[in-house]
Structures are given as structure tokens and as C-alpha cells.
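Issue: ligand-bound run for FE2/S2 (inorganic) cluster - logging full I/O for the record.

Environment: standard queue, default settings, no custom constraints.

Inputs:
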Amino acid sequence: MNLTLRVWRQKNAASPGRIEIYEAKNLIPDMSFLEMLDVVNEELMARGEEPIAFDSDCREGICGTCSLVINGVPHGGQKGTTVCQLHLRHFKDGDTITIEPWRARAFPVVRDLIVDRAAFDRIIQAGGFVSVSTGGAPDANAVPVPKDATERAMDAAQCIGCGACVAACKNASAMLFVAAKVSHLGLLPQGKTEKDRRVSNLVKAMDAEGFGNCTVTGSCEAVCPKEISLSCIARLNRDYAVALLRGKTA
Ligand code: SF4
Ligand code: FES
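Outputs:
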């Protein structure tokens, strides 16, 4: 396969960025999108040019590090798929592909396609800890948890903190991410003790980081590689309202 790549290049957060064109030739359709960028970078370095900076770690869809907007869609538009799990067979020979970083004020560009997602780390830190002693591994079976609560908590726990939900949202809202954290901890009995404090601290931290409000467009759910449900946002709103009524806000 041969592809034409339109890639966002930006030296650092203070420099203006621009789109540059690269020809990627003799690619194998079973290559992943990131392997294709590795090939392009090897050619750039062989010519003495700066490689394209992009983030990745596990390349197995579990760490949330890879973060590219491909043809205007975070993670490239394959349902439930991270960029690292996206393969070239989903494109056509001769295609022109535009590759950009996440775009959100709370995620400043570090270089080229890499953005700083430390805002998510600070939100998670604000959530605090679970004080219930959960015991050793054998004790896990001694705590009865309703099957439905386990299923929904584990679905929410799949969030890998990639930030695609923010990148897709016209308001750059982090509600789906925060809602996933609220659901996965708040649904389990061990997480209920700090439930009110946790939800109010998470929302406060989210607002302080400059993420926008949710207007329920659903774009976050549509691009989420872990298919986190919008119903988590409904739970977040409910839990936050209850915390307010109980006067348990931070
Ligand atoms: S909710 Fe989905 S899109 Fe948002 S950070 Fe979590 S995994 Fe990524
Ligand atoms: S590199 Fe870890 S999810 Fe893509």
C-alpha cells in the first residue's frame, strides 16, 4: 500500500504548528497504524530529518497512551478500537490521511502529535482513596456484590484514560472520563464510604482543569475505544446532586 500522510508538526507548545505532507510507500495492510508511523520515522531519520513525535506504550489497547486524531476522528473511527489496534487494511491504497493531536485547551501540545494529559492524572488524584480494608485475595469472595453492580462497575473500569472523549467533544468536556471513574468505584460496596466526597472532588478538579460542560451530544461515547456508556454520565449527575443535597461537597 502507498499512503499520503498529512501530519501536524509542532516544535513545542509555544510554536505555531503546520501540516506537512509525507509519502508512506510499500506498506503492508496488516501493519498497525503506529507501525506505519515507525516506518515513516525510520525513513525520516535516515534522511537526517526530525522524526514525527507521537505517544504509545502498550500497543495492545490497554494503556490509553496512543492518541491521534485520524481524518478528524479520535482513534480513527473503528468502533471500540485504539489507534495502536487500528490496522492499515481499514484504509485504501492511495488514500490521503490527515493525522493531528488531541485538540483541547486542557491538553496542551507538547510536540507534534503528543499532548500533555497530566490534567487527567490530577483529576484522578483528587478522587482520593478507598478507606475500607478489602483484606487479602481470599477475602474477595467473602464480600457479596450484586452481579449487576459488578458488571456495570467493571464496564466502567475499562476506561483507559486516553482522552478521546475530550478530543471528540465540541465543549472539550471530560465528563465521560470522570463518569467512568465515579461509576467504577461508586457501584461497588467498598467504594461507597467515600462516594459523596469522591464525586464532588472529581467534579471540582475537572472544572479547575478547564474542561468544558457536557451538553450530551454523545460524541464521547461514539469515539470511546472502551465503549464507556453515556449512562455513566447520568450516574455522575445523580451522584453529584445527592452529594450536594447531603452537603458533602468539597
Ligand atoms: S471514557 Fe473512553 S474515551 Fe474517555 S478517557 Fe476513558 S477510555 Fe478514553
Ligand atoms: S499504546 Fe496503549 S492503548 Fe494504544
